[in-house]
Design the sequence.
């Protein structure tokens, strides 16, 4: 037997024995009438941070806290353990003479990973560590598994994503990321609610998945014997509500796109879309700029954020540049001087940019932008006035043929938001849907299909409206200095274990 295989088998045997011992301890507790799983509550009075952050006020006071035991050191008649709860860790001093001989005997058999309720008084040890002098220790839940070894922790990324519950126990910085994620979302809600926006909910299962260029997931609704899709966007239903007179609406929810997985994409992700009647894409720029500053200040404490090697300054006015000017600036190509699709394709050939036969001049401009511009947009930047070919739901610029009132918001070279002066002309919208239908028929799986009910809503009349979609996950990545989208999703999409190589 190879040496490494022998070592692996011995480790598996050791783990099996340790797990067996934990089960035996539980059985002994049950036989002695001390089944921890029959205990229903612990009357917690404080979290660890309440004590450590306010020691002068808390010293000498009795507290009750609960959490997972992460460390234990038994020393004869007295022992120490570390308890971890939502807000941190604290040391507990457990003495036989104070908690009683029987309780101390039980405590010595408790394992790292067990969940305890501890009552005691706050004090500071001779070494200066803030601690709890325990008067009562109760086992609330017996851990029948073994946590990762404390010095190495849980470092395998695949295991971290699959077993997020263990990741949250072992890595406090991961827990902090998800606390901040929750704060990002609650801060967005507070900002919008204070400005008269109404939060609404729209369907996830739809017959027509529109509002974005993406391939949908499809499923079958048995009760109706009808094929349906998971939504790829929130847009078309929220606009219906603007038609109905709800002048400021937003939704934060999951959308689903049948696409690949990488550091910035997950097939299901959180999108926030909002629509405001009687404004345009300039109003959406102002809202975005103010919102990002507000969220950054509330979540990170500053309008200047460190992300990787970049210092992102949200305190200054965000740059605003047209897509044509951005391509001119970074690619030294002037699309104002290009008069036809044939010229644009010839230029793409010269720059070795691949395109499809169906692509027109505006599509080629977008491809140049992706190749030459995006990577340079590190500081907050609004890229405005997109070509009409890639913007089927956007109002035309009245003073510039072939372009629309749209912007994309970039930070760190990433698209963070997409916004329009919304198209409210039902005749124009029908023509654009028909053009999208032609693309769909030609094999473009990401093209929109015609939505008659939406067109009917526009025919009733929609006021001039500004709309925007924010990628919440990417916003959280920026606010928490996380390098991959999976690091800010509690349960990212993973291939089923055993099928990774299929």
Sequence:
């Amino acid at each position: 037997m190879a040496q490494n295989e022998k070592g692996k088998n011995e480790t598996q045997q050791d783990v099996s024995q340790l797990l067996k011992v934990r089960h035996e301890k539980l059985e002994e507790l049950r036989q002695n009438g001390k089944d921890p799983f029959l205990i229903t509550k612990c009357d917690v009075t404080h979290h660890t941070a309440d004590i450590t952050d306010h020691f002068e006020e808390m010293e000498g006071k009795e507290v009750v806290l609960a959490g997972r035991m992460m460390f234990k050191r038994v020393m004869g008649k007295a022992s120490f353990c570390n308890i971890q709860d939502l807000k941190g860790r604290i040391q507990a001093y457990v003495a036989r003479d104070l908690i009683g001989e029987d309780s101390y005997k039980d405590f010595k058999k408790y394992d790292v990973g067990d969940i305890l309720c501890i009552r005691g008084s706050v004090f500071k040890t001779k070494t200066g560590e803030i601690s709890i002098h325990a008067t009562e220790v109760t086992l609330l839940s017996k851990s029948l598994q073994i946590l990762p070894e404390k010095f190495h922790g849980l470092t395998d990324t695949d295991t971290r994503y699959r077993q997020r519950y263990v990741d949250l126990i072992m890595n406090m910085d991961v827990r902090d990321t998800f606390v901040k994620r929750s704060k990002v979302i609650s801060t967005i809600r507070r900002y919008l609610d204070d400005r008269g926006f109404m939060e609404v909910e729209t369907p996830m299962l739809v017959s027509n998945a529109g509002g974005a260029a993406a391939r949908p997931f499809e499923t079958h609704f048995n009760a109706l014997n009808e094929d349906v899709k998971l939504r790829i966007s929130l847009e078309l239903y929220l606009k219906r509500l603007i038609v109905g007179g709800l002048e400021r609406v937003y939704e934060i929810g999951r959308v689903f796109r049948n696409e690949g997985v990488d550091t910035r994409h997950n097939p299901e992700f959180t999108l926030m879309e909002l629509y405001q009647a009687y404004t345009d894409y300039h109003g959406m720029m102002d809202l975005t700029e103010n919102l990002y500053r507000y969220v950054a200040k509330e979540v990170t404490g500053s309008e200047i954020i460190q992300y990787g090697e970049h210092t992102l300054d949200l305190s200054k006015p965000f740059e605003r540049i047209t897509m044509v000017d951005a391509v001119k600036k970074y690619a030294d190509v002037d699309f104002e001087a290009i008069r036809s699709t044939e010229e644009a394709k010839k230029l793409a050939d010269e720059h070795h940019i691949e395109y499809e036969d169906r692509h027109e001049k505006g599509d080629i401009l977008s491809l140049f932008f992706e190749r030459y511009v995006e990577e340079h947009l590190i500081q907050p930047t609004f890229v405005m006035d997109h070509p009409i070919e890639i913007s089927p739901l956007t109002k035309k610029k009245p003073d510039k043929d072939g372009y629309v009132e749209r912007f994309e918001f970039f930070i760190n070279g990433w698209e963070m938001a997409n916004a329009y002066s919304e198209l409210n002309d039902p005749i124009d919208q029908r023509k654009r849907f028909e053009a999208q239908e032609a693309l769909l028929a030609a094999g473009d799986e990401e093209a929109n299909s015609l939505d008659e009910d939406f067109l009917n809503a526009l025919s009733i009349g929609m006021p001039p409206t500004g709309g925007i979609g924010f990628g919440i996950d990417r916003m959280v990545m920026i606010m928490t200095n996380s390098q991959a989208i999976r690091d800010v999703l509690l349960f990212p999409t993973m291939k089923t274990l055993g099928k990774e190589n299929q």
In short: The CA atoms of residues 344 and 350 lie 10 Å apart. The two ends are 29 Å apart (CA to CA).
